[in-house]
Amino acid sequence: MKHYAEIYKRELLEEVIPFWERHSPDTQYGGYFTCLTDKGEVYDTDKFLWLQARQVWMFSKLYQEVEPLVAWKRMAQLGADFLEKQGRDQEGNWYFSLNQKGEPLVQPYNIFSDCFAAMAFGALFQIHPEERYAEIAKCTFENILKRQENPKGKYNKAYTRTRELQNFALPMILCNLSLELEHILGEEQVEKVTGSVIELILNKFYQEESGLVLENISRNGQFIDTFEGRLLNPGHAIEAMWFIMNLGIRKKDNALVEKAEQIMYRQLENGWDEKHGGIFYFMDIKGYPPQQLEHQLKLWWVHLETLVALAKTYAYNQSPTAKMWFEKVHHYTWNHFRDKERGGEWYGYLDRQGEVSLKLKGGKWKGCFHVPRALLEVWKTLEKFG
């Protein structure tokens, strides 16, 4: 498996990161352009805060874990300065989007802007230890915990008293975000947060009888037989399992790692499209038609997070099953999402048959994150193997 490490390293450093370095910096107003065509042309100048923050995190990690290049630190700082100056309302909540100049466009309804802002400033603090960066990360994290029960707050359009749901995405992200911020939060708080989140994921969202992870459950942890309650998102569940594997390895809890591994395999087996290959975006646990019209699309992040989970599994136990699935998913992902003609960043959206659906490299939902993070994770995870 070691030869994969070199492949992923080369793709990260010679193709993907240079693409974002060339095309994304906004040298006039700060921050980054994320809406980029396959040629790297900017087709929209609005700035989505979770993508801005993810790119700050990415370049901070490259500086810390690959090489302390001045250019990478400057790139991280470009986004962080923009976020620090323009990103929050008066209550400290992070907007969803701004225009190019940094003027607010969409209110701070989306807690994931806050999650990735905390992650960004936590990573920046590690390479540029100014206390204000640690303070931004810590205050934002504390605000996230306060908003857990009602993440959208006053912007929540649901009539919650009839059918109050909790969504899988925030517990999933808290698994990883807590670890990312341990150098600021301390071990005790990380243990407290991750302990409750793991309990919620493995004992409420995970359904023992089917082996599948639900995307939504009732507030008291029950299955709800509706569109939302039956919804499966294989990519989310698989991503969460490598976060939990990291926590299990950190805690030296082999049983936790092995449980996460088995749950990961089940999501992958259930989500794999036997006819055309690739992993479905959304599914219904009872096999009914999902309400999402895009449910049969194949998305970049789903496959890349799966490769990370499989690489980590192989690194943990050298399982032949992990190797088999890694090679299968690797073959599909590299043959369908990678731009063989131009190189650079990868495509994000395929139809069910595996053809590129949108000729973009970045947009409102796709930025400098899942592709480079996965390439970095797989490279660093597998490089020690012969």
From TrEMBL:
Query: What biological-process GO terms show up in the record?
Result: carbohydrate metabolic process
Asked whether the UniProt record includes Isomerase among its keywords, one would answer yes
Taxonomic superkingdom: Bacteria
Q: Which UniProt keywords apply?
A: Isomerase
Q: Which family does it belong to?
A: Belongs to the N-acylglucosamine 2-epimerase family.
**What is the recorded name of this protein?**
AGE family epimerase/isomerase
* UniProt-recorded Gene Ontology molecular function terms: isomerase activity
Q: Which InterPro entries match?
A: 6-hairpin_glycosidase_sf (IPR008928), 6hp_glycosidase-like_sf (IPR012341), AGE/CE (IPR010819)
Lineage, highest ranks first:
Bacteria, Pseudomonadati, Bacteroidota, Flavobacteriia, Flavobacteriales
